[in-house]
C-alpha cells in the first residue's frame, strides 16, 4: 500500500471552506514557488515532488465534482467513485459484493464496512488552514558559476541565466483559455522564462564558496520579499597554472647555460608576464618563488607563484655549438648516474 498522500487542502495551505477563487490563487502562488525549472541541485528533486503533489491537489480541488467526492471520501475518492458505480450497477441495497474495479486488491465489501473504513481513515483530517493572506518570501535559488584563475584574481562580473516565473503568455496569467484550463500553464497562470542577470563576484573567492546575492531569488507573494540567489563557485582547471590552495605552480623551461650562468628571463603570471632572475647555479628541478603572485588566500593576503625550472635542450645546434658541447664532455664532472647506480645496487 502506498503511503497516505498529504491532504489536498493542506498542500494548498487552505481550509476546507476555501472558495474556488482562493484555491486558484493558492495554486498559482505555489506553482510559481515550486516550479522545478526554477531550482537546481538538491532542491530540484524536492521541488519536483512538491510540484507534482500541488498539481494533483489542484486537479481535484479545482473541479467542483471531484472536490465534492474528495470532501466526502478523502484520498480514496476515486475508489469510492468506482464503488458507487458498482453499487448502482449491482442495484441499490445489495448486501455485499466483490469490489475489484480499483485494481488495488479489491475484496468483499458491504456498505457499512466501507463507510467505516473511510471514517477511520479520514477522521482528523482538515487541519489545514493558514498561509493565505500572509506575506510569503520568495524561494532562494542556487546556481553554479565556474571561474578562471584570472577571474578569481581580479573579481569578475558574470552573466547568470536563471528561470523566473512570468505571467503565462497564452492566457495572460488568468489560468483559463475560453473557459478551459490553459494548456500552456495548466491553470497556474504562470510559466517560466530564462532571464540573464549580471552578478558581481569579488576577487579572491575560494573553490566551493557560496556567494550570496541578496534579493535575486524568486519573487515573494502577498508582499513577501524576494529570496536570495546563491552562487556555488568552482574554479576551472588550468593546464598551465596549477593551483594548490592559494599558491600557483607553473613550469618554466630554461636552457642548461641559463641555469649554470644565471639569466634574466620573462615568466608568466596570472596577470602580466614579469622579468625574473634565474640565479647562477640553479638546480635542474629548482623552484623560484614569486611572493604574493598567487591567488588571494582565505585568510587575507595572497599566495605565491612558484616557477618550477625545467632544463630543456635546444631543438637544433649549429656546428659551432656542437663544438662547445664537445668541450664539455672533456670536463671533470662526476657521473650524474653514480648515485642512482649506487642506490639500485644496494637493494
Ligand atoms: Zn496559461
Tell me about this structure.
This protein has helices at residues 8-12, 20-34, 42-61, 64-73, 77-90, 111-122, 149-154, 256-261, 319-329, 338-345; strands at 97-99, 107-109, 141-147, 156-167, 176-177, 180-181, 190-201, 210-213, 229-235, 242-244, 247-254, 263-267, 274-278, 287-290, 305-311. By secondary structure, the protein is α+β, with helices and mostly antiparallel strands. A 4-stranded mixed sheet has the order 10-11-15-14. Strands 3-9-8 form a 3-stranded mixed sheet. Strand 5 (176-177) and strand 6 form a beta hairpin. Helix 4 packs across helix 5. The longest helix has 20 residues, at 42-61. The chain is elongated and about 115 Å long. The protein starts with 7 loop residues before the first helix and ends with a helix. The relative contact order is 0.10. The model is unreliable at 92-132 (pLDDT under 50). The protein binds zinc ion.
Please report which band the strand proportion falls in: under 5%, 5-15%, 15-25%, 25-35%, 35-45% or over 45%: 15-25%
Helical fraction equals 25-40%
What is the SS-derived class? alpha+beta
Biggest sheet character? 4 strands, mixed
Ligand inventory: zinc ion
Q: Radius of gyration in whole Å, from Cα? A: 36 Å
Low-confidence stretches: 92-132
How does the SSE layout of this entry go?
Layout lengths: L7 H5 L7 H15 L7 H20 L2 H10 L3 H14 L6 E3 L7 E3 L1 H12 L18 E7 L1 H6 L1 E12 L8 E2 L2 E2 L8 E12 L8 E4 L15 E7 L6 E3 L2 E8 L1 H6 L1 E5 L6 E5 L8 E4 L14 E7 L7 H11 L8 H8 L2
Parallel strand pairs: 3-9, 11-15
Antiparallel strand pairs: 1-2, 4-7, 5-6, 8-9, 10-11, 12-13, 14-15
Bound molecules: zinc ion.
Amino acid at each position: 500500500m502506498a503511503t497516505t498522500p498529504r491532504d489536498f487542502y493542506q498542500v494548498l495551505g487552505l481550509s476546507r471552506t476555501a472558495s474556488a477563487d482562493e484555491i486558484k490563487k493558492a495554486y498559482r502562488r505555489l506553482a510559481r514557488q515550486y516550479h522545478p525549472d526554477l531550482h537546481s541541485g538538491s532542491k530540484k528533486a524536492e521541488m519536483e515532488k512538491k510540484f507534482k503533489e500541488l498539481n494533483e491537489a489542484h486537479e481535484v480541488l479545482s473541479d467542483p465534482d471531484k472536490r465534492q467526492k474528495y470532501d466526502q471520501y478523502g484520498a480514496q475518492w476515486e475508489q469510492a467513485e468506482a464503488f458507487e458505480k458498482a453499487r448502482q450497477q449491482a442495484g441499490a441495497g445489495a448486501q455485499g459484493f466483490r469490489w475489484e474495479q480499483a485494481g488495488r486488491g479489491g475484496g468483499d465489501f458491504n456498505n457499512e464496512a466501507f463507510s467505516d473504513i473511510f471514517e477511520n481513515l479520514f477522521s482528523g483530517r482538515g487541519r489545514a488552514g493558514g498561509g493565505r493572506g500572509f506575506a510569503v518570501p520568495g524561494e532562494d535559488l542556487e546556481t553554479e558559476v565556474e571561474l578562471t584563475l584570472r577571474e578569481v584574481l581580479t573579481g569578475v562580473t558574470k552573466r547568470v541565466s536563471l528561470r523566473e516565473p512570468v505571467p503565462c503568455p497564452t492566457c495572460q496569467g488568468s489560468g483559463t483559455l475560453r473557459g478551459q484550463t490553459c494548456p500552456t500553464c495548466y491553470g497556474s497562470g504562470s510559466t517560466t522564462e530564462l532571464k540573464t542577470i549580471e552578478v558581481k563576484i569579488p576577487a579572491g573567492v575560494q573553490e566551493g564558496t557560496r556567494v550570496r546575492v541578496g534579493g535575486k531569488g524568486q519573487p515573494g507573494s502577498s508582499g513577501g520579499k524576494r529570496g536570495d540567489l546563491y552562487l556555488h563557485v568552482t574554479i576551472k582547471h588550468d593546464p598551465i597554472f596549477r593551483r594548490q590552495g592559494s599558491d600557483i605552480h607553473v613550469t618554466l623551461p630554461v636552457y642548461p647555460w641559463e641555469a649554470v650562468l644565471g639569466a634574466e628571463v620573462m615568466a608568466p603570471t596570472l596577470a602580466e608576464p614579469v622579468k625574473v632572475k634565474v640565479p647562477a647555479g640553479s638546480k635542474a628541478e629548482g623552484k623560484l618563488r614569486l611572493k604574493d603572485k598567487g591567488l588571494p588566500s582565505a585568510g587575507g593576503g595572497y599566495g605565491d607563484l612558484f616557477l618550477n625550472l625545467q632544463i630543456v635542450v635546444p631543438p637544433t645546434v649549429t656546428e659551432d655549438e656542437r663544438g662547445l658541447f664537445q668541450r664539455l664532455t672533456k670536463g671533470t664532472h662526476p657521473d650524474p648516474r653514480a648515485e642512482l647506480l649506487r642506490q639500485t645496487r644496494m637493494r
